[in-house]
Amino acid sequence: INTPFDEDFPQFDPNGTTLYFSSTGHEGMGGYDLFKTTFDPVTMEFTHPENLGFPINTPDDNKTISFTKSGRYAYISDLRPGGTGNLDVYKVIFLDVPAPYITYAGHFFNIDSVEIFEARREEIERVKKQILNMEASIEKEKHKIEDFKSRIEAIGDDRSDLSVKRLSVFQTSIETSQATIDGLLEVEIPQAQKELKELEIEIEIKIHLLNTANKSVISSFAPHPKTGEFAVIAQPGNYIIRVESNSFETWEGDFIIPEREQLPDPYLYNIYIENPAPKLFK
Length: 282
Description:
Elements: E1 7-12, E2 18-23, E3 33-40, E4 45-46, E5 50-51, E6 65-67, E7 73-78, E8 88-93, E9 102-106, E10 108-109, H1 116-155, H2 161-199, E11 205-211, E12 217-221, E13 230-234, E14 237-245, E15 251-257, E16 267-268, E17 271-272
Parallel strand pairs: 9-16, 10-17
Antiparallel strand pairs: 1-2, 2-3, 3-4, 3-5, 6-7, 7-8, 9-13, 11-12, 11-14, 14-15
Helix pairs in contact: 1-2
């Protein structure tokens, strides 16, 4: 590794087996070049340094290189045409190293930016409350009927003009209350119960990652059945995401994963569905 000339900026790769360094003493393209050498645990020696070659090395000085966790990406400092001035930092992609798998996670939202599973839960609670309110209205009307019946009973056989008018008002009120009860029991509550039954159907979603060339399915994923959170895992590339569901029409969108490392947490990717419930209530 060491020569009578200059060796500088040593750094191991993430696996700790390959040493990268800069040198003016090994055969290069001019000035400092970047080299690598691998440690052999059997012989307890490093292999003969290998020049990283063009386009990483140039006739100018190339001294530093820093690798990311996967070993597919590295960053160098260099003076190149098109830079912003003097030395610039450049990203290097080693195509012979497999790209890492990247995880994206998110939720499904409607056009009002409300998460559709949460929106469904809110709709269920709204309809349940509506049914409870209608049932309470029925009890209220029943109490009214009982009250008017008691008043009619109190009038007894009195047929004075005033009593006759009161009897007519009470009887009309009873009929009105009964009509309200009948409407709630026969129409409004059954409609609400039907709506509730449809809303309580579990939202089923399947996410497909498609090849952009022929739209063949590469992999498929499903969100959490209760929270709706989903994750998509793939290597960098250009894809199409197709979302199929029993609760909305099929959705498709471009899905581009840039060359990057996986973070400790997934990258955020939310999907916005224009109309998340067109299949319901048909």
